[in-house]
């Protein structure tokens, strides 16, 4: 009888462990956007930490405060001009940290539906191949 009880305790413990398992997830940190006026564009920057052991990829974004949200990569072309290229996929390998930062990757907010003022916050939803949709709050800050 005692061993059945012990088995039961072990079982409950294992269920508890798996429910609360710190096996890692995909975490979005330090999200911020540049201020902008209604009708203009802005850009969102953030850090993606893939704390899982599986490959993932950012494939899109949606945002209520803009007509469109696209993943862009800023690049210097051969004549020294900064250009932006739309990206269909940003790979985030297992245990990798990917930064969307000024001068590189960003999420372009196209045709803002309202003014974005310093101190404002708004939600953005990021779409990942494996993790699905993740919504985070973005703070409007003066960038450098
Ligand atoms: Cu852009």
CATH superfamily: PCu(A)C copper chaperone
Report the order of strands and helices.
HEEEEEEEEEE
The fraction of residues assigned to DSSP E strands is over 45%
Average pLDDT number: 90
CATH architecture: Sandwich
CATH class: Mainly Beta
Shape: elongated
Q: What radius of gyration results from the CA coordinates? A: 20 Å
Structurally, how many domains make up the residues? 1
Total of helices = 1
Biggest sheet record: 10 strands, mixed
Q: Oligomeric state of the chains? A: single chain
Describe this structure in words.
The protein is mainly β and 144 residues long. It has one domain (24-140): PCu(A)C copper chaperone (Immunoglobulin-like), CATH 2.60.40.1890. It is 12% helix and 51% strand. The protein has one helix at residues 2-19; strands spanning 26-33, 42-50, 56-63, 66-76, 82-86, 90-92, 97-100, 105-112, 121-128, 132-140. Strands 1, 2, 3, 4, 5, 6, 7, 8, 9 and 10 form a ten-stranded mixed sheet that branches. A hairpin with an 8-residue loop joins strand 1 (26-33) and strand 2 (42-50). The relative contact order is 0.26. Copper (II) ion (CU) is lined by residues 43, 72, 84, 106, 108.
Offer a few descriptive terms.
144 residues, binds copper (II) ion, ten-stranded mixed β-sheet, Immunoglobulin-like, 1 helix
């Amino acid at each position: 009888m005692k061993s059945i009880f012990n088995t039961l305790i072990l079982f409950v413990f294992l269920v508890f462990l798996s429910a609360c398992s710190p096996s890692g997830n995909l975490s979005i940190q330090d999200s911020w956007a540049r201020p902008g006026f209604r009708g203009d564009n802005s850009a969102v920057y953030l850090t993606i930490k893939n704390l899982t052991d599986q490959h993932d990829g950012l494939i899109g974004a949606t945002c209520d405060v803009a007509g469109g949200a696209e993943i862009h990569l800023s690049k210097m072309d051969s004549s020294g001009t900064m250009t932006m290229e739309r990206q269909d996929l940003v790979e985030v390998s297992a245990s990798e940290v990917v930064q969307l930062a000024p001068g590189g990757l960003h999420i372009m907010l196209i045709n803002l539906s309202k003014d974005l003022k310093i101190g404002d916050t708004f939600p953005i939803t990021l779409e990942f191949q494996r993790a699905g949709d993740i919504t985070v709050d973005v703070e409007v800050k003066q960038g450098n």
